[in-house]
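Complex record, two chains
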Amino acid sequence: MSDTVKYVLDESRIPKAWYNLVADLPRPPEPVLHPGTHQPIGPGDLAPLFPMALIQQEVSAERYIEIPGPVRDVYRQWRPSPLYRARRLERALDTPARIYYKYEGVSPAGSHKPNTAVPQAFYNKEEGVRRLATETGAGQWGSALAYAGAVFGLQVDVFMVKVSFQQKPYRKALMETWGARCVASPSTETNAGRQILAQFPESNGSLGIAISEAVEVAAQRDDTKYALGSVLNHVLMHQTIIGEEAIAQLEMADDYPDIVVGCTGGGSNFAGIAFPFIGAELRGGRKVSVVACEPAACPSLTRGKYAYDFGDTGHLTPLVKMHTLGSTFIPPGFHAGGLRYHGMAPLVSLTQELGLIQSRAYTQTKCFEAGVQFARTEGILPAPEANHAVRGAIDEALRCKAEGVSRAILFNLCGHGHFDMQAYMDYFAGKLEDRAYDEAALAESLAGLPDLAA
Amino acid sequence: MSDTVKYVLDESRIPKAWYNLVADLPRPPEPVLHPGTHQPIGPGDLAPLFPMALIQQEVSAERYIEIPGPVRDVYRQWRPSPLYRARRLERALDTPARIYYKYEGVSPAGSHKPNTAVPQAFYNKEEGVRRLATETGAGQWGSALAYAGAVFGLQVDVFMVKVSFQQKPYRKALMETWGARCVASPSTETNAGRQILAQFPESNGSLGIAISEAVEVAAQRDDTKYALGSVLNHVLMHQTIIGEEAIAQLEMADDYPDIVVGCTGGGSNFAGIAFPFIGAELRGGRKVSVVACEPAACPSLTRGKYAYDFGDTGHLTPLVKMHTLGSTFIPPGFHAGGLRYHGMAPLVSLTQELGLIQSRAYTQTKCFEAGVQFARTEGILPAPEANHAVRGAIDEALRCKAEGVSRAILFNLCGHGHFDMQAYMDYFAGKLEDRAYDEAALAESLAGLPDLAA
């Protein structure tokens, strides 16, 4: 058989609806609580931040939400994304496993993030919004929203964590090329930023501070709303187009996965590939083993507590029930910046509570080792985040070899690493450290979780 | 009509043969001359450097050369590449022109270069070669060959111009991720390198020196051959798959270009998109206006002399008849490193002599201005080299507007700029300088062209 096995869907087969796992779960998600009153919030509470169409999606229990025509039209620039069979990797591993990967790095921003940036920009534009404010850590989300803003003619203001702003000037340049404004956070543009700077003039910033700044700008200005790149239900739902396409492409291959693997930070790319398969199983379809691969340095699913917590460190956001390391948890340095989040998407957390997924934590050195093996066989250089999924898939394939069993493994290659070459340089130079988090700090962070009885 | 208009060929329609323009030209190319004797060389003279299959392609007059199955198999990883109609750009320009672009940045290395790196690696592997030596300036070619070497299991040694080696560590890291060895040139590994270092210990290197090093290594070792990323007939022929696919895709659009635009450095991506259309015209098809866009700082087609010259500064290569600025010409600094070559592919030069193409020189600031406009409308960030073609296409579209005429414009977007963000940063910071070359130095370089009567 040929070395390159690529399954290409005709663009007429771009899914016409996103899939909403909530419709098939045995119990509904826990309510989102107001940060002050601890009472469930309603759509109106979110109206200053999000357009009504997205708020309705956030609370919807409908199984399918139609993808608007103009969104499908923009998706067509890079979708359907290809599904590959990793023949050369299989041969290098000498495994009987059948390894498939969905490649989301073909988007203009190079990751899965535009799958939700585009509809978010569209719905905001439809409701008359002129400007979007958001935060970004490593820069993947900020650049995806900058791209979507360029397409729909929206101004995009990105609060970028200062240490990344300084260390990743090329990500910033990418956002600016698409016309976005990129500001180092903490900034002097918001009260939240000014307060931090007054207290800590040399602050490196954090995702939590940047979220506070973006939320503040959106809440204060009528023409501006907020956009989030992961965690929320509607964001995860937009990503299900990945898994929906994969199902159709695996039909072309006359195959179905025994195992589905994704990396998890906030949970959106993982949900994107996994939820359509979990939903099919819940509706009576084939059982699938679903594996979430997270960084050992920020292990929300494997070491976090399933509890109500804030989404940000500034405690401005609503409380959501999720696996969390506590909002004061600061992970040690590692290169998969997109996976540095103290919590996990509530829907992903719920699937773990329901026993529908399992999770696994990997150190970064093992992940880069897998990424380099993947690049040298399959020819695509993965993002550091995606390397966690590559590691998970390779480990499953090696298990197949050890057990002498051929299983079908599907994983999501959520983005390329073109803007992450420093990490590869550090890996080759032997400079990657697998730094462990501080157990005492984790215990303290968990002890500080909000007390809902209070 | 929809904003995204993408023409996707089924992979069964990847061309089965490359197109050889030589078959349709009204006169044959000028012979290649031995650097010492000035007599035409034969296939045997090239045997130490290239496998026989490539030498035969280099001198072939056959119209079509079949693409081997294993090469088409690897091509299928990213080919057929998409053809887009630039609807959003057309609207921004308010032009009646119909602008199409072929996007070659979808390859694993991010440019058109793998179109020839893959067959070159294949033919070498077939003939028992174990190692390829090559040079790279900005790094596009080196990374493409590193990728192809990984696919076919060949060791790849890349001599990278020292100043690029130091300024572009991420390109080097990309090559190393694919398993290639990347050496700063001049190096201590070759006589050519050691001689330069003895004379100029602080030498920044040049493409000419790096070519000399790679050629020396290939000539001296039985298991090693040399690979070149542009200029040669067989390299240009491998790239014709771009134009062949574009013809089929424009048939899907029920359209045919009035104007074809490409950027030119050594000439390979330009030939790739243009030669199939020029050939069709020569065989009695529709007349096409073909425009080569080159950097004003290194203007071989617009200011060079059509004469025999060396391909390298060390004068180790054969003499070819081409448009040349003289092998001692040193262009001033500019960001499109892939277009810094003193000569032009002999076949491209011949088409200009025959009046089949026209050429145009652009300063880099005007090219980045076009590239940013393209990124903000079409969503893809072009490589600095590709920006020359974008500039040319936009200018043609603006001419259509001025004249009130709708013409079909096709250009080759030969690669993305993910590894060239420093150039965009300099552009946004107002730091890009349009440095002119020294007229006296050009005159001197041209005066030093080899005297064949001697």
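Note: The interface with chain A takes residues 2-4, 6, 8, 10-11, 70, 73-74, 76-77, 84, 88, 106, 108, 110, 147, 150-151, 169-170, 173-174, 176-179, 372, 375-377, 379-381, 418-419, 421-422, 424-425, 428 of chain B (CB under 8 Å).
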